[in-house]
Design a protein that fits this description.
The chain has 329 residues and is α+β, with helices and mostly antiparallel strands. Helices cover 36% and strands 22% of the residues. The chain is built from 9 helices and 13 strands. Strands 1, 4, 5, 6, 7, 8 and 9 form a 7-stranded mixed β-sheet that branches. Strand 5 and strand 6 form a beta hairpin. The chain is globular. The protein binds ligand DP6. Ligand DP6 binds next to helix 5.
């Protein structure tokens, strides 16, 4: 925990009174970015270089139970986690930012996300942790503040305190007080996301190191914030006017542009596996044949398909192993 983090937490909690209970619990959905967050302007406060826009995954996410305890312990899906494991150290280091609530915690985390499918569990994980902490401490923080605290754990977690379409504003303030997420006032019940598990190859480099390497070494990175800014405007407009092809095309190009910055880093970051490339071509072929189908990819080999309910049966026929998610219930 650094001084700058301690000061940030103090600022966010200013005026919040503690009315501590023995425990707290919360659920937060996972989310998938349609316009990605890639690059930090401040690593300690997880302040991004560019804004991002995501869709939350409804009931797929993380449920966390938090209790004050004599000794810290972390459980994941019912199993005790080795304290040296990075999941346990990241969780407990995060809770160390809040000594005013307690010194030791028992954390029980249940993920109902298919972990192998490359869906970031850190986003829903830190969002649920902050919300459970707020419940335990009795602060009653608003979502904007919860989003700022979740951001300290993982950038994408700032978006997971909300359902639906969510924009994380990058902000410009060095102290991070204007960098938080906000829910867009829009529902799109026909919107579908398809999850394909293509490869279980472990990522060679995590998002955190990957984005730092890209910012430091990629010649293409300069154009990334400019594109991300424009893409968010187009996606917001597409959501407003229900223009699915405009949304899909912009999201797909945004993801592949992010991968272009990764590949132009040194040493190159190539998260895509041969199966990923095969799938990108398959989606292009299906689209050329008239199917309204697009894709997005995060820092890993797995592909997420974007389509509407009207295309669902054709998409399922083309991808029999697809897990289909309805973000709007
Ligand atoms: C490619 O939020 O996992 O999924 O802030 O370092 O914890 P840290 O990174 P993280 O990065 C997510 C990157 C991404 C794009 C996105 O979700 O916007």
């Amino acid at each position: 925990m650094s001084d700058i983090q301690t000061q940030f937490v103090k600022n966010v909690l200013a005026g919040a009174e503690i009315e501590r209970k023995a425990g707290g619990s919360a659920f937060a959905p996972s989310n998938i970015a349609l316009s990605k967050y890639w690059g930090k302007r401040n690593a300690e406060l997880n302040l991004p270089i560019n804004s991002s826009l995501s869709v939350s995954l409804g009931r797929l996410g993380t449920q966390t139970e938090l209790r004050l305890a004599d000794e810290s312990a972390v459980y994941l899906n019912g199993e005790s986690v080795d304290p040296a494991d990075s999941f346990a150290t990241r969780t407990l280091e995060f809770l160390n930012l809040f000594p005013m609530v307690g010194k030791h915690f028992e954390v029980r985390t249940e993920n109902n996300i298919p972990t192998a499918a490359g869906l970031a569990s850190s986003a829903s994980g830190f969002a649920a942790l902050v919300m459970a902490l707020d419940d335990l401490a009795g602060w009653g923080l608003d979502k904007q503040k919860l989003s700022m605290l979740a951001r300290l754990g993982s950038g994408s977690a700032s978006r997971s305190v909300f359902d639906g379409f969510v924009q994380w504003h990058a902000g410009t303030d060095d102290e991070g007080t204007d960098s938080f997420a906000e829910r867009l006032d829009a529902e799109w019940p026909e919107f579908r996301i398809g999850i394909l598990e293509l490869s279980r190859v472990r990522k060679p480099v995590g998002s955190r190191d990957g984005m730092n390497r890209t910012v430091e070494t990629s010649e293409l990175y300069n154009s990334w914030p400019v594109q991300a800014h424009a893409d968010i405007d187009v996606i917001r407009r597409a959501i407003e006017v229900r223009d699915f092809p405009m949304l899909g095309k912009t999201a797909e190009r945004n993801a592949l542009s992010m991968h272009a910055t990764m590949m132009s880093a040194w040493p190159p970051l190539i998260y895509l596996q041969p199966e990923s490339i095969g799938m990108i071509h398959k989606v292009q072929r299906l689209r050329a044949d008239g199917l309204e189908l697009y894709l997005t990819i995060d820092a890993g080999p797995n592909i997420k398909l974007l389509f509407l309910e009207s295309a669902a049966s054709d998409v399922r026929a083309a991808f029999p192993d697809l897990q289909v998610i309805q973000p709007f219930g």
